[in-house]
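thread from #wetlab-drylab

HS: before we spend reagent money on co-crystallization trials with adenosine-5'-diphosphate, can we at least see a predicted complex? here's what I'd submit
DV: go for it
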Amino acid sequence: SASDNQNKSKSILTQEVSTKQPFIIGVAGGTASGKTTVCNMIISQLRDQRVVLFNQDSFYHPLTDEQFKKVHEYNFDHPDAFDVELLLSCTETLKNGRAVSIPNYDYKRHRNVESSRMVNPSDVIILEGILVLHDHRVRDLMSMKIFVDTDSDLRLARRVQRDTVDRGRDIQYVLDQYAKFVKPSFEEFILPSKKYADIIIPRGADNHVAIDLIVQHIFTKLGQHNLCQIFTNLFVIQSTNQI
Ligand code: ADP
Ligand code: C5P
């Protein structure tokens, strides 16, 4: 009957809407390269689109008491410092259009704080972090891969400023950590992941042209996606009306 057909078309439509996959962007780059700043500039230009940003740092393994006591010997820049399985499953969940709870990381206590953040499914999902382009399974979920490429001296200067002022760290620890772990891991793991990027942004957030181009591309992709969706839905309505 007509009402049966209408119901059938409605259920197919609902299925279509819920299977609409978001546009996932990965933003990698060395410490203090301007990843967060670039992401915030992209988000502010995306205006009315539904966008969420989450950070790879939320997936750091918590330190054991033993590791905490010897934090000066801990390498936070090694891929093994992150729970990549959890990062992968959270990104997959978001990609499949479901909400997910993401831990909040405390840089002073080197562990997640009790309150986690609920991240809702959105049209655009941005994952930011030093090593988000390192694991191929995480990379494979991304529709666009960006590498923020900023001069190392500038990054170190910003890092010293941030860690001593915002994170209340001792300057000697910051410099030792940089020489012992941050720089070697950048060279061994982060820099080689640049080859997987679709877009490399020299000078980070100062590069307004690159950011404009990225935003334009996202708008184009979302527009195509919405147009495809409208045609698919029209086709579904047409074909179910003929059943
Ligand atoms: P990341 O997320 O890569 O660690 P951030 O975006 O947090 O980098 O930037 C690190 C620090 O450098 C922040 O204090 C930020 O305000 C500053 N910063 C970033 N980009 C610029 C820029 N283009 N000019 C001046 N300061 C910047
Ligand atoms: O924001 P940014 O990309 O700089 O964050 C990553 C950096 O945070 C890493 O280089 C790592 O050395 C540092 N980090 C730290 N202490 C932690 C966790 C991360 O210094 N507990």
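DV: The chain has eight helices and seven strands.
HS: ok that's useful, forwarding to the group
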